[in-house]
Amino acid sequence: MLRRSSIWMPMLKEAPSQAKLRSHQLLVRGGYFSQMASGIFSILPLGNRVLEKLEKVVDSEMQVVLGAQKTRLPILLSADSWRKTGRWDQTGDELFRLKDRRDNDFCLGPTHEETVTDLVASFGHLSHKQLPIKLYQITQKYRDEIRPRFGLMRGREFTMKDMYSFHADEEDIMRFYDNVCTSYENILKKLGLDFVKVRADTGNIGGNFSHEYHILADTGEDDLVCCDSGDYAANVELFEPEAKTSTDVFNLDCNCTESTCSCMGKGKLRIKKGIEVGHCFILGTKYSDTLKAIGVNADQKRFPLIMGCYGLGLSRLIAASVESYRYHASTTKVTADDAIVWPRAIAPYEMIIMTAPGKESERQKRKDIVEKDIVPYLSETVDINEVVLDDRWKESLGVKMAEAKLIGYIWVVLVGKKGIEVHHLPSSNIFSVQHASEIPSIISQFDDRIQK
Ligand SMILES: [Zn+2]
């Protein structure tokens, strides 16, 4: 069990003045991330725990459910294959470009379609028996934003999961694409976030079929057109330019066919705000044609591999969780201004044990209850790596409690005037217990409820 006095948790009284978003303010104040330069953050130990937990959730879906293999492609990318696909010239100033000592062009990878296609092509023609190939990585990505803002929402360096798949035929890639979408939905449900899957523009990556995943949040930067009584949803980018500028247009009837929306034409289109966290594309053969990633079928016929790519922004997902996670689906206001409520799956620590100060004799008594009663008992019943012991026995309760709320522990076990209390911070419930042995049964009542 970690002792609070031994953990470095640098916290700030006030958020930096340029931090406009709640997630930016709280994550910097709570000592999760620290800005080093515009749009570039150090991930502090607390933030790294959140990120590693999120990676675990993602790894499990990618590897166990989808059967993808984890890999690590270079971050420093040669311009050669970017020139072949045309993206070296098509991509604007958002690409971080640099030169080596021999004057060769490189960029810092914002995305890896060229790299992974080069990699697969470098092993020669692939037998259809080796397909599909499904590779993913979780690494830093780079984009030179004009105005890096909103903290982790739009940084110039960010952590992203990107996956690339290579298939022999359309049927196989469509099946896999649907499975990836289901996995994304599993991940977002596990985090208890309100999300919507929308049809999207394929943009600079190209290809012929694409969906985005958005977390619904008033602070989102994207406008989404959603049917109010069905499941139709699309990024507003897909609409005509004149429609984009007029919000009136979106009081329209949902003129969808049965196959595009479940409302059967009865719904109305509304605008909602979203934070884009995931993007799936069917790329077809755009990259494999150009970079010669070739398969050979059973009749020894050659064909370009059919590709898909699937991104999930992890640093952005962390910010979006702080922005919009609600413990109860019915809660309208997120929470107090100085408290983070984490989805349980990614809370940095689940519990802190603390005492109220007081006279020397009281302090000693409370310390004894913690060390001789609570700690040994919890050591046998809960995951001790998730528990912090606040051993600052003389520190005021107000200071310790405010810190616990800002950090976003799920549970506070408090020994004070009223004996032992168990606080469930997301719901503000407080339970009095006679003995530490009652704590696990209280926790287990809540386990299932820490979801939408
Ligand atoms: Zn509809």
TrEMBL record:
<dbReference type="GO" id="GO:0005524">
    <property type="term" value="F:ATP binding"/>
</dbReference>
<keyword id="KW-0547">Nucleotide-binding</keyword>
<dbReference type="GO" id="GO:0004827">
    <property type="term" value="F:proline-tRNA ligase activity"/>
</dbReference>
<protein>
    <recommendedName>
        <fullName>Probable proline--tRNA ligase, mitochondrial</fullName>
        <ecNumber>6.1.1.15</ecNumber>
    </recommendedName>
</protein>
<keyword id="KW-0067">ATP-binding</keyword>
<dbReference type="GO" id="GO:0006433">
    <property type="term" value="P:prolyl-tRNA aminoacylation"/>
</dbReference>
<dbReference type="InterPro" id="IPR002314">
    <property type="entry name" value="aa-tRNA-synt_IIb"/>
</dbReference>
<dbReference type="InterPro" id="IPR045864">
    <property type="entry name" value="aa-tRNA-synth_II/BPL/LPL"/>
</dbReference>
<dbReference type="GO" id="GO:0005739">
    <property type="term" value="C:mitochondrion"/>
</dbReference>
<dbReference type="InterPro" id="IPR050062">
    <property type="entry name" value="Pro-tRNA_synthetase"/>
</dbReference>
<keyword id="KW-0436">Ligase</keyword>
<dbReference type="InterPro" id="IPR033730">
    <property type="entry name" value="ProRS_core_prok"/>
</dbReference>
<dbReference type="Pfam" id="PF00587">
    <property type="entry name" value="tRNA-synt_2b"/>
</dbReference>
<dbReference type="InterPro" id="IPR036621">
    <property type="entry name" value="Anticodon-bd_dom_sf"/>
</dbReference>
<dbReference type="InterPro" id="IPR004500">
    <property type="entry name" value="Pro-tRNA-synth_IIa_bac-type"/>
</dbReference>
<dbReference type="InterPro" id="IPR002316">
    <property type="entry name" value="Pro-tRNA-ligase_IIa"/>
</dbReference>
<keyword id="KW-0648">Protein biosynthesis</keyword>
<keyword id="KW-0030">Aminoacyl-tRNA synthetase</keyword>
<dbReference type="InterPro" id="IPR006195">
    <property type="entry name" value="aa-tRNA-synth_II"/>
</dbReference>
<feature type="domain" description="Aminoacyl-transfer RNA synthetases class-II family profile">
    <location>
        <begin position="49"/>
        <end position="343"/>
    </location>
</feature>
